[in-house]
Amino acid sequence: MHAPKRIAVTGAAGQIGYALLFRIASGDLLGPDQPVILHLLDLPRALGALNGIRMELDDCAFPLLQQVVITDDPLTAFRDIDLAILVGAQPRSKGMERKDLLAANANIFAEQGRALNAVARRDVKVLVVGNPANTNALIAMTAAPDLAPSCFSAMIRLDQNRAQAMLAQHLHQPVDRVSQLVVWGNHSPTMYPDYRHAEVDGRPAPLAVGDESWNQEVFIPTVAQRGTAVIEARGLSSAASAANAALDHMRDWVCGSAGRWVSMALPSDGSYGIATGIFFGVPVVCHGGQIERVAGLDINAFAREKLQRAEDELRQERAAVEHLLH
Ligand code: NAI
Q1: What residues does NAD(+) bind to (predicted)?
Q2: Cα separation of 228 and 26, whole Å?
Q3: Which CATH architecture has domain 5-154?
Q4: CA-based nearest residue to 188, from 273, 314, 102, 89
Q5: 258: how many CB neighbours lie within 10 A of its CB?
């Protein structure tokens, strides 16, 4: 048995937390030989609920779960952690404007970035899930100057999984026959699910689909609006699928993606002509705990327009929180 890994989950008393924690503790994230210690952070008013979750975790008798820390203090939550999944965020309430939501969450992620900077392991891997995820990741990274920017990422994997499932269903193929599908940009309706380089059952996806109007008029808008469709159907936002995507993202980062392309939102390095200073969803492969961008993909005029739209939106989000980035 290996030494335990410490994994922090924020917003742990929320609905994504509830779908995530039991899977981490059962070994779905780091495998059947890796013991874990969970550090659960939530607001003071949620500590009672967190205690209930700890009781349930105990009652599962998970062999890999060595300890559960519950706290409302980010410094306790992030001390010596190996991995952080930052889910906790303020939801948009009635009448709240987008800029107010950005500001409220910016403060949360600035505080958590400072705490990570102070007490997390220097090779910590941080995944931001709480929305607006890309910009929250930028804020946390900026507040943590002693940690390498490569410690930070934001989640666009749910969008990738949604796009992959939709393409597979359209072509009547099992989902695992779809590879090299990319989601670019922001985790928002401006995202660009892109199957121009994908293969489905060994065939180029654009050939297999054979209908560019389906791509532009059905596929892209349906993937972009999937979160809203789930809310309308379920009365609640996506939780199990979001938790599953967080596990997929982290597992690939830590354990490797075995050559598969996966999409992650990372600090832009200027590649593909995307401005630096924002977190942007790009295709990557992971091995040995490192992330390597997939380079050299062709960006045609349609793709360029989509990338530009996402970049513009992310620059606007950044402008709204600029005061927290110094
Ligand atoms: P939820 O409202 O059920 O849970 C959020 C939890 O965060 C609550 O327990 C709340 O007390 C806690 N929280 C709020 N502020 C906190 C703080 N400062 N520190 C620690 N905990 C705090 O929400 P749910 O459904 O679990 O979603 C969480 C976030 O994930 C939302 O921002 C949602 O928009 C986002 N999300 C992101 C997705 C993505 O693909 N990136 C997909 C789905 C959801």
Answers
A1: 11-17, 42, 105, 112, 129-131
A2: 30
A3: 3-Layer(aba) Sandwich (3.40)
A4: 314
A5: 9
- Please report the DSSP string for 201-248 in residue order: TTEEHHHHH--HHHIIIIIHHHHHTHHHHHHHHHSS---HHHHHHHHH
Instruction: With CA atoms as reference, report the closest residue to 109 among 134, 79, 92.
Output: 134
* 3-class SS string, 12-58: CCCHHHHHHHHHHHHCCCCCCCCCEEEEEECCHHHHHHHHHHHHHHH
Q: Which amino acid is at 214?
A: W
Ligand 1 binding pocket, CB closer than 6 Å: 10-11, 13-17, 41-43, 46, 87-91, 108, 129-131, 133, 155, 158, 187, 237-239, 242
Element (H, E) at 138: helix 133-142
Domain 157-322, CATH: 3.90.110.10
Task: State whether ipTM is beyond 0.95.
Answer: yes
Q: What is the mean pLDDT of the chain?
A: 96
* CA–CA distance, 113 with 144 (Å, rounded to integer): 5
Please tell me the distance from the alpha carbon of residue 325 to that of residue 143, in angstroms, as a whole number: 7
Residues annotated as binding site for NAD(+)?
A: 11-17, 42, 105, 112, 129-131
Phi then psi for 91, rounded to 5 degrees?
-75, 160
> Does the pTM exceed 0.95?
yes
Number of H helices, E strands in the chain: 12, 14
- pLDDT mean over 173-192: 97
Q: In the chain, what are the domain boundaries?
A: 5-154, 157-322
| 5-154 matches 157-322 in fold | no
* Gap between the Cα atoms of 237 and 241, Å rounded: 10
pLDDT at position 24 is 98
- The H or E element spanning position 66 is strand 65-71
What φ, ψ does residue 132 adopt, rounded to 5°?
-75, 110
Distance CA 316, CA 153 (A): 19
